[in-house]
Amino acid sequence: MISNHLSLVEQQRQNTESISARTAQYLASGGQIAQLQSPPRNTLLPSRSQKIDPETVLKRKPKALSWADRKALRLMADSL
After folding, report:
1. Which of 24, 43, 65, 78 has the CA that lies 20 to 30 A from 9?
2. 79 sits in which H/E element
């Protein structure tokens, strides 16, 4: 079976030959290719703490009024 990507390889062959020719010209004129160290990797962020602050638990939003409580408050407000 013939690969569909063969035409892509052939299309890029001119670019490859051009790059290798320019590299050879650079090296022939006294140029040097330096292999440098790779840049440092980004470090991973520290994992989240499993500790729960007790003060945070106390600051939680209070429960909303139920439908029955709201109805009772409306009746009390109307009676005033």
Report:
1. 24
2. helix 67-79
**Which pair of tokens denotes residue 69?**
């409580």
Residue 6 domain boundaries: 1-30
What tokens were used for 66? 């139920």
- The phi-psi region of residue 30 (left if phi > 0; otherwise alpha if psi is between -120 and 50; otherwise beta) is left
Residue 78 Cα to chain centre, angstroms = 56
Q: Which amino acid is at 28?
A: A
Question: Quick one: pLDDT at residue 3?
Answer: 60
* Residue 25: inside a domain: yes
User: What domain count does the chain have?
Assistant: 1
Determine, yes or no, domain membership for 1.
yes
> Which one-letter amino acid corresponds to residue 61?
K
